[in-house]
Amino acid sequence: MKTSAIVLSSVVLLVLVVVAPAWAQGMVGRPAPEISAPYWLNTPPLTLKGLAGKLVIVEFWATWCPPCRKSIPHLIELSKKYASQGVVFIGLTDEPRDGVEPFAKQMGMTYAVGGGTNVGAAYGVEGIPTAFLVDTAGKVVWAGHPMDPAFVQAIESQLKKTPPTMMSVEGKALAKVFLDKAEEGLKKGEVGSAAAALARLPKVADPALQERVETVRKMLAEAVAARAAEAEQLIAEKDYYKASLALTQLAALGADSEQAKKAQARLKELTGDEKIKAEIERGRRESQAADALAEVEKAGQTKSTAETLAALDDLATRFPDTKAGKAAADKAKAMRADPELMKKVMLASADKDCKGWLSMARNFMKAGLKDKAKSYLDQVIQKYPDTDYAKEAREMLAALAKMPAE
Questions:
Q1: Cis amide leading into 129 (omega within 30)
Q2: pLDDT digits over 109-119, tens only?
């Protein structure tokens, strides 16, 4: 705003105390233009879209404007009065940060301030201060001077007509994400992940959403109690590994959770007994082996027989003292006892090895390196004597014998 316009603007704005000019009234009933600013004070960047569901006061002002300075304490008072009712106050100016920030601190402006913006043009602003009341649907429902008594009356009236939601669209969306995660964790029996999701929940001020929060919290409390009872039952049955899993989940509920503290103490008690500690480790290995065997069996649907056999051998070697490890050894033994199956494995292995060896032998023969060619041909014959590859290798050896010496 240019300094040369100060005197004229001040005269016009004093009139606004009583009657809002036609240009301001012309915005009433129209969708409020979106707001933006290069910098913000007292708040992260704001948009009307992000504030959908709230009543928003968009007020245009400047540090050099006497009526603006006079209205600031009034706006501070109103912003504090209506904040808990879902009303957001935003002051917009076209001035740079280095002048606005110290001024805002000096005046004690606690409401949102956006600066360096030309959004006033979209609102048709011709004088300041001017406030626009934007309803929950994003429509301008009042415009005028913020010191006009009709301003407060308009806010009160609109609060009754369209009560604001107490959370922004983004806040609601974020809350729903964490509530979904909490419910998903509870369905899977993962009380730790459910508790972690609820711990990240933003402050919920929406009545309908708050009801859902309370329901999920109740479900979590019930699940935690059930898991604690399950842990004690497993301990009584001497299934210490599964008991440790349940207690570990409970111990991760958070530092403020009494149930977490109890679970941590119970775990410490169990692992302090060497015999129980060994049982927990044995259970952990049994679980790892069982998971590994399930993976091998699942992968067997797409892997070759040779690859499956190798995976079973590896599992049996790594977990020889487990049920799954022994089952893997038995499966591998059964596979090797099947002649037809082993023939397929041998042929698959021959395809992989012999093609490469024979190719190398041909290259060495072309280069006249008979000894190196012979070493590859001998490998084919020795490892796969009854295959067509061995027959081809013998024919190549015969040809090799007729070649002149190196």
A1: yes
A2: 999 999 999 99
